[in-house]
Predict the structure of Nucleoside diphosphate kinase.
Amino acid sequence: MTQRTLVILKPDAVRRGLVGNILARYEAKGLAIAALEHRTIDGEMADRHYAEHVERDFYPPLRTFVTSGPLVVAVLEGDEAIEVVRGLNGATDGRKAAPGTIRGDLSMSNRENLVHGSDSPESAEREIGIWFPNL
Ligand SMILES: Nc1ncnc2c1ncn2[C@@H]1O[C@H](COP(=O)(O)OP(=O)(O)OP(=O)(O)O)[C@@H](O)[C@H]1O
Ligand SMILES: [Mg+2]
């Protein structure tokens, strides 16, 4: 089934010059870019995006991190796009993520793990609505 999913190339991806590398992986896999924007967000936007995590102990440093500089946010489209993107992204902790995945190849961190991908159709719809209300 064709799906849309929200992807964020977090500030570490921009700072490290990995935007092209990461987007190329999604494109080469066969996903289409339905929206793409370079943006810097404030804490309020971070709280909206990470609504399910705001009470977690790891959230305050995550909030600081995602607001620390520009990021690139995209909507990717394709067959089973949500699961496909999660597979390409790899496990949350870059040290444990499998080689071949974005995090497994390029991250050594649990927080600065380069990418976000929606985790369900409900999350994708909610997140696309927050980031791209006109899409
Ligand atoms: N234990 C932790 N310590 C530090 N940061 C964490 C931790 N767990 C999660 N994070 C940060 O919070 C983000 C959201 O956590 P979540 O559990 O949703 O992971 P995920 O679904 O793999 O990643 P994402 O939602 O960004 O795609 C992670 O991507 C990471 O940046
Ligand atoms: Mg998540």
